[in-house]
Design a protein that fits this description.
The chain is mostly helical. The chain contains 11 helices and no strands. InterPro entries: Cyt_P450, Cyt_P450_sf. This is Os03g0658100 protein.
């Protein structure tokens, strides 16, 4: 494929891809074109292998895993969603994807060379900001922090006697997480809203499920609980089904 200046085979077979992922690089070794590496960084998680890769992956799970989702992220997502919806009330129409990703980094999907240069400059600016934030956070003591987040998890790792990651790896990891999550989130939400709009029966059942949860709450304005989230069976099925259809948004794996 000329786009990557190399011959390659593209697999869209779910069973084969799942087998490759499960083998933890025993069948193949991950590889990315130079254009990817210039955006994601030479010290990104996608360049680490074996135990180092698993260690960095476990760090990521501390942020996106079920425990942190239950403890903190669920309420944070609710606040963000409510603030966004309130800001749309007085507007006749909105572009959902642009609104959701208005303060987020974009995807480099099918970029022109001009756009690619913009991404490189954007990476430089974001990395400078992340390094400043990391340096600032290092200076704060535990009691000065309002909450514990992924920055703190990385700082704890860097303070170890023999840290498994360097500061450059930590910064590249933060950049990759920003890059990977924001565009997929905005596109996923846009797709879900589109599919629900085209399927009034699904929208009605979804609304009824949420109304039942609200009626059971002692305070309708209280934050969502983990138990309420887990009880959203239809919501989970409907949204996961549509996200599966958007699986092409996931960063491809080169081997």
């Amino acid at each position: 494929m000329d786009q990557f200046s190399a011959d390659m085979i593209v697999s869209l077979d779910p069973e084969l891809n799942n087998l490759v992922f499960q083998q933890e690089e025993r069948l193949f070794q991950c590889w990315y074109p130079n254009s990817f590496m210039r955006v994601f960084g030479a010290d990104s998680i996608i360049t680490t292998f074996g135990s180092s890769h698993r260690h960095v992956r476990n760090l990521v799970l501390r942020l996106f895993g079920p425990e942190n989702l239950r403890r903190a992220m669920l309420q944070e997502m609710q606040k963000t969603a409510q603030a966004s919806l309130l800001s749309w009330l007085d507007r006749p129409s909105i572009e959902v994807k642009e609104e959701v990703s208005s303060h987020q980094t974009g995807s480099c999907g099918n970029s022109s060379m001009h756009s690619f240069k913009d991404y490189l400059q954007g990476r430089k600016n974001v990395m400078r900001m992340l390094r400043e934030l990391l340096d600032e956070r290092k200076k704060k003591t535990a009691h000065q922090l309002e909450s514990i987040d992924f920055f703190d998890a990385l700082i704890d790792e860097l303070k170890q006697e023999k840290p498994a990651v360097s500061e450059n790896v930590a910064l590249d990891l933060l950049f990759l997480l920003l890059f990977a999550s924001f565009e997929t989130t905005s596109s996923g939400i846009t797709a879900i809203l589109r599919f629900l709009t085209d399927n009034p029966m699904a929208l009605e059942e979804l609304t009824e499920e949420h109304d039942r949860i609200l009626k059971r709450k002692a305070d309708p304005n209280s934050q969502i609980t983990w138990e309420e989230y887990k009880s959203m069976k239809f919501t989970s099925h409907a949204t996961l089904s549509q996200k599966d259809q958007r699986s092409c948004l996931v960063l491809p794996i080169f081997i």
